Amino acid sequence: MIEAGQAIHQAIAGISLDEYGNSRLIRSSVEREFITIGEALTQLSQRDQALFGEIEPAPQIISFRNKLTHEYININNQLVWGVIKTNLPVLVDQCRQLLDRLDRELP
């Protein structure tokens, strides 16, 4: 999830919302990475409910992934951009904190 988040930030580095909206290649890349994040969270929910529960926005991210996958005709670029700018940094930070904690707990 961290790598996918970094890939999204790299894909949009130095561009505006308008440039994002006008680049099918960048939009496709970003959407694919969000789908990857959502799928990883779905897998986590099936393997470790407690850890999944520690990622507060996980259910919304899975829902977002489902919309990107199944309702791609209606994707709102401004909404995706907002998720990138507002929600993605929080998710990546939470994942880093969880990994750090898990690393410290290992023998």
Helix content range of the residues, please? over 70%
* Head-to-tail CA distance between termini: 24 Å
Structural class by SSE content = mainly alpha
Rg over CA atoms = 14 Å
How much beta, percentage-wise?
under 5%
Mean pLDDT score, rounded? Answer: 93
What kind of sheet is the major sheet? none
Extended strand count: 0
The best one-word shape is: globular
| String of helices and strands | HHHHHH
Count of discrete alpha- or pi-helical segments spanning 4 or more residues = 6
Low-confidence runs of at least 5 consecutive residues: none
From the structure above, extract its key features.
single chain, mainly alpha, 6 helices
Quick structural gist:
This protein is an all-alpha fold and about 110 residues long. The protein contains six helices and no strands.
Structural write-up:
With 107 residues, this protein is an all-alpha fold. Helix content is 82%, strand content 0%. The chain has helices spanning 2-12, 17-22, 24-47, 49-53, 58-70, 77-105. The radius of gyration is 14 Å and the shape is globular.
